[in-house]
Structures are given as C-alpha cells and as structure tokens.
Amino acid sequence: MNLGLGNLFWVVLQRDLLVAMRRWSDICNPVIFFVLVVALFPLALNPRAEFLRALAPGVLWIAALLAALLSLNQLFRADIEDGTMEQLLTLPYPLGLVILAKTLAHWLVTGLPVVVVAPLLAITYHLPADAIGILLLSLLIGTPTLSLLGSIGAALTAGLRQSGVLLALMVGPLMLPVLMLGARATDIALSGDDPTGPLYLLGALLALALSLAPPAAAMAIRISAD
Amino acid sequence: MWTWFFQLASPPHFYRMAGSLVPWLLWPALLLIVIGSWGGLVQAPADYQQGDGYRIIYVHVPSSYLSMMVYVTMAVAAGIGLIWRIKLAHAVAASCAPIGATFTAAALVTGMLWGKPMWGTYWQWEPRLTSELILLFLYFGYMSLRSAFNDLNQSDRASAVLALAGVVNVPIIHFSVLWWAGLHQGPSISKIDAPSIAFDMLWPLLVMILGFTLFFLGVLAMRVRGEVLEREFHSRWAQDVLRGASPMEAG
Q1: What are the contacts of B131-136 at 24+ separation with CB within 8 A?
Q2: Which residues are CB-contacts of B154 (< 8 A; sequence separation ≥ 6)?
Q3: Is B10 domain-assigned?
Q4: Taking 60 as the threshold, does the pLDDT of residue B73 lie above it?
C-alpha cells in the first residue's frame, strides 16, 4: 500500500481518536481533574470576588499545566506495550510525522476539553468577558505547546514501568515559559492593557515546539522501544 | 588529529590520562582560589553602596557562571555521545550533572545570603535567582531520568535527548523569566554587569572564575574516571586497576 505523507498523518490521527473514543474515561479524567484543581482554590483560600478575579489567570493556567502533565503518561505507553509502536517504527516514513499525529490526537482528546471548559470556570472566578477571551486564546495557543513538549518526556519514559512523578519533574521546568506567558497574557488583559505581546511570544513557542519536538520525540521513542 | 581523538575515547587510555591530569588541574585551582579569595576579601575595597556585603559575588558569580557552563558542557557531551555513539562522551555527560547541580545550589544559597542584607529578605522572585532555581530543576530531572533506567545504554541515550531538549530551553526560560520579572518590579540591582567595576574588584573575580573552572575540570576528570571504571568493571584492564596494578602495566 502506498500512502502519501498527508494520508499517513490522517490515518494515525483517526486511529488514535478512535481508540480514545473507546476508552471514554481517558478523555474525561484530565478535564475532571482540571475542574477539581480550579475548585480547590476558593475552598482553601477565600471566595471573595475581587480576590478570586486576581487569582484566576494563574490558577486556571496552573490547573491546565497540571492536567496536561498528568495526561501525558498515557501518550505512548499503550502503543509500546501492545507492540503498535514497533510496527510504526518499521514504516518507511518519517517517524516524527507519526509522533506529531499522535500528539495532535492526544491534545484533541485531553487538551481541547480543558480549553473548552476553562471559560466556564473563569466565570465562577468572576473574570470579565474580554479577559476570558484572552484566556481562551492563550490556552488555545499554549496547551498544544505543552502537549508537544510533553511528547518528548512521554517518549523518553514510555518504556519505564513507573513514570508519573519522573515525567512531571522532567517536563515541568521545560513548560514554565508557556505558563508564565499564558498566565501573564490573561493578567494583562485583566488589568485592561494590550496582551498581544505575550500572545505572539506564545505563538512563537508553539512554532518552535511544532518544528523541534516531533523529531526529538521520535528519537526518544526509538530509544525507548529498544 | 583523529587518531588522537579516538585514542582519547578508549577507556583505559582515558583513565590513565585523566589520572595524570587531575593534579595539574586541582593544584592550580586551589592556588587561584586562594589568591582570588585574598584579593576579593582583603585587597579589594568595600563598595560604597553595598559595603562588605558585595564580597559574596566572589563565590556567587563563578558558581552561577559554572552552573550554566556545566549544563552546556553536559549537553554538548551528550550530543557527541548520541551522534557518534562514543560511550566516553556519555560518561562525561553523566558526570557533569551532579557537579552542575552543586554549583547551581551554591549559586542559589550565595544569592540568598547576598539578598538578606541587600533586599532585607533571603528570597526575592528576582530573574537571576528564579532562573537558577529552574536550572536546578532541570538538573534534577536529568539525574532522575538517568537513574530510572536499568539498561546503561538506554539511560545514556534517553538522558542525552533530555539534555539537548533542556539546552534549547535554557535561553527561552532565561528570557521569559527576564520578561516576566520585568513586569512586576523595576530593574533589580545589577550585581554583575555594573557599568564600570573597579579594577581592584574585578581581577579577583576573574581569578576566581578561572580557579572555579579549573576546579570543575579537575573534579570532572575524577568523576569520569570513576564512571569509566564502573562501566568497564568487567573488562580486564579495570580488574587490573582495581587489583592495584598501575594501568600503565595493565594497558
């Protein structure tokens, strides 16, 4: 069978989405976790409206980062365990493309729901509408970068039996610039200033991660599958 | 030139050569650090704004400089190991990590000690300290990934990918921390790049940086020797060395 590169991308993407749909809890858990973390702060700190409003950009971004970190563990694990990855390794196509399709599928399943739910939670934090728009935009640009960075870590630890905390420890520091830019962009919008600067920088990070992370993750997956 | 390079990559040869190099690195390092400490603590005048408090830069600046330099060294060694599959390069990368983490911790602690008299608090979310803290996490991540694998070859290559991903990220982290800190406070008191630092204050600093660098190279040589010996534990030359024969005869 002769497959074009674009076709290969679609085939892998569709397959991964299908597998994800059959295991519904994998889709729900990161979002539920996200909501839980966001709900912790008013309970632990102070439910006053102006206090929560100041807190909202940071809390929502931290929760999104934690949800991304926790969901990464499953990115390549099942494929390594059931041998799918070995089949993909033998394909006469660039492995980075396969990794990119898998990462995109993973983001669609775990990252996108978080982005969709975030505005609802922002309302409970009394965030004004225009800041919610910027929050949504920053998450939309930022969370794919988190997934791409995470794909390197997930590929490195895919062969290990226990990797949850290790993965978070490895990838967490790499994700910090995204967190700083995303939370700050929302914060700037909240104080009524123009947040285009950090949003552009977030976009630059996404472009960088999009071009560098898949080859790195491909190299890592070859090492893990050894 | 290449034969020299490949000879260097042979473990017994390296073990022998590094062993004879160590005193040539560590004694000059000690000498330079003693001279630099004297210059910095005794000879240099007190700063007109910071008094004697600034003198901690003679430890802080070399440590923070090396904390970054060691990470780059580690990533370069890891890259060489990954591309040309040279095991010695992986041994160098593995040995760099604990040393670099120690320098990072030293830079953090001295930075905090400097902060107490200057800011009135041990910790400020100031860009340099924050960058050092994140760098420390990067070292920790690298070391815990290394220790997670049972297979040495796999551990070498996987950690090399992480070191390379990290070194691409270091400047990004650095500049985003600068940007982030710039939003919250005015420019912090700059302790390194003061526009015109008096020569009396500058030369001990340069001597200390050189001394610390030699110290790093000496400790690195010692660590890599140990690492090589451990990796080659079952080979004949390593057994000979461990039995007390000089590696010269064993080779």
Answers
A1: B131/B173, B131/B174, B131/B177, B132/B64, B132/B67, B132/B104, B132/B107, B132/B108, B133/B108, B134/A173, B134/A176, B134/B173, B134/B177, B135/B67, B135/B68, B135/B71, B135/B104, B135/B170, B135/B173, B136/B101, B136/B104, B136/B105, B136/B108
A2: A159, A223, A224, A226
A3: no
A4: yes
pLDDT for residue B185 is more than 80: no
Determine contact, residues B141/A173, Cβ cutoff 8 Å: yes
Distance CA A10, CA A134 (A): 31
- Assess whether pLDDT exceeds 70 at residue B187: no
The angle at the Cα of A66, spanning A180 to A88, to the nearest 5 degrees, equals: 105
Is pLDDT of B196 > 80? Answer: no
Low-confidence winner among A113-122, B108-117, B153-162, B173-182 (lowest mean pLDDT) = B173-182
Q: Looking at residue B191, what is its pLDDT?
A: 47
What is the nearest CA distance from B195 to chain A, expressed in angstroms? 29
Select from A73, A95, A99, A156 the residue whose CB has the most chain B CBs within 10 Å, as the one to mutate to test that interface: A156
Residue of higher predicted confidence among A46 and B140 = B140
Give the residue-averaged pLDDT of A13-29.
Answer: 88
Taking the Cβ of residue B164 and every Cβ of chain A, the question of whether any pair is shorter than 8 Å is answered with: yes
- What is the interface size between A and B, counted as CB pairs within 8 Å? 79
Whether the pLDDT of residue A79 is over 90: the answer is no
Min CA distance, A169 vs chain B (Å)? 5
Q: Decide if pLDDT at A148 tops 90.
A: yes
> In this structure, is the dihedral angle defined by the CA atoms of residues B237, B243, B246 and B249, taken in order, positive or negative?
negative
**Considering its fold, how many domains does chain B have in total?**
1
Q: Would the CB atoms of A224 and B158 count as touching at under 8 Å?
A: yes
Q: Is residue B133 situated within a structural domain? A: yes
Residue A164 pLDDT > 90: no
- Rounded Cα distance between A126 and A119, Å, is 10
Distance to chain A for B122, nearest Cα, Å: 23
Q: Which domain holds residue B45?
A: 21-186+200-250
Give the model's pLDDT for residue B250.
45
Residue B176 and residue A180: Cβ atoms within 8 Å? yes
- Closest Cα partner for B163 from B181, B140, B185? B140
Residue B7 belongs to a domain: no
Average pLDDT over residues A140-163: 92
